[in-house]
Amino acid sequence: MxxxxxxxxxxxxxxxxxxxxxxxxxGLGQRSAIYVPFPQAVPNKPVIDRxxxxxxxxxxxxxxxxxxxxxxxxxDQQMKL
Length: 81
Description:
This protein is of the alpha+beta class. It has one domain. It has 3 helices and 4 strands. A hairpin with an 8-residue loop joins strand 1 (20-21) and strand 2 (30-31).
C-alpha cells in the first residue's frame, strides 16, 4: 500500500478472502487477506497477506483496488523490508 493510505479499512471490508486464521488471536479467529496486524498498530493501516490474497494466488481478483477511496493499493509494488 502506498503512503497515501488513510487507514479507512474499506479494502479489508471488501476483501473476499475472509477465512484465514488470525495470528493475533493464535489462530482461533478469522481475518481477511487484508488486515491490520493487531489493535493499536502504528501505523494503523492494513497490510496485504500475499500468501492468502486471491490476486497473488490466481492473478484475477482486484476488488480491493476498486474499493479503495484513496487509490492507495498498487498490487504491482515490490515488498519493502
